[in-house]
Amino acid sequence: IAGITQAPTSQILAAGRRMTLRCTQDMRHNAMYWYRQDLGLGLRLIHYSNTAGTTGKGEVPDGYSVSRANTDDFPLTLASAVPSQTSVYFCASSGTGSEDTGELFFGEGSRLTVL
Amino acid sequence: GQNIDQPTEMTATEGAIVQINCTYQTSGFNGLFWYQQHAGEAPTFLSYNVLDGLEEKGRFSSFLSRSKGYSYLLLKELQMKDSASYLCAVLNSNYQLIWGAGTKLIIKP
């Protein structure tokens, strides 16, 4: 089944540890995104990539980094986790063709707890 | 600043109709999206409006008025499975998606 796969589904992490959340899509979408979702707040964009080889900063990029070596993969790394990074993280992708509306396709989410 | 406003929570009865409103103030406009998100799950696409008027898709309809910065999502013949959060998002002139905090819809028998 085509879609986006995230791993891990959930993780408990000690503060100061490094963590990489993985995201893979098989829809050949050019654009990919990382969001965090916290109770009472809208989805907040962390980083995005419009095409393989390029990345950009979103609304809340501090403490996070991304890479886009190819079309399918878009990992998110927390270099040194802090408790405020406790959240649910969603990876998403969208097509950028002339007939695409910009609809986002989301992964199932990664629930991260930093202690 | 840019912001999207929608009610935090709404309650409705199974079989009834409910309207979820969304007002927005953004730098430019390139479309408005509605997503559904069940608890513990990922958001899924419901509708997209870029022109004024009503878009109907089965039990769900979405309305847009660009001059008023206003949209609503109309859900008819409510079912228990419609209990979820409904997220409004606007694509601004820089093609950035601005998200509302979501409306939690509770359906009672």
Structure described in brief:
Helix content of chain A is 0%, strand content 44%. The N and C termini of chain A lie far apart (35 Å). Chain A is an all-beta fold and 115 residues long.
Query: Helical element count of chain A?
Result: 0
Radius of gyration of chain B: 13 Å
Low-confidence stretches of chain A: none
Tell me the major beta sheet of chain A.
7 strands, mixed
What is the N-to-C order of secondary-structure elements of chain B (H for helix, E for strand)? EEEEEEEEEEE
What spatial form of chain A do the alpha-carbon principal axes imply? globular
**Quaternary organisation:** heterodimer
> How much helical structure, as a percent, in the residues of chain B?
under 10%
What class, by secondary structure content of chain A? mainly beta
Most strands sheet of chain B: 6 strands, mixed
Order of helices and strands of chain A: EEEEEEEEEEE
Radius of gyration of chain A: 14 Å
Greatest interface by residues involved: A-B, 16 and 23 residues
How many helical elements of chain B?
0
What share of residues are in beta strands of chain A? 35-45%
Helix proportion of chain A: under 10%
Mean pLDDT of chain A: 93
End-to-end separation of chain B in angstroms reads 40 Å
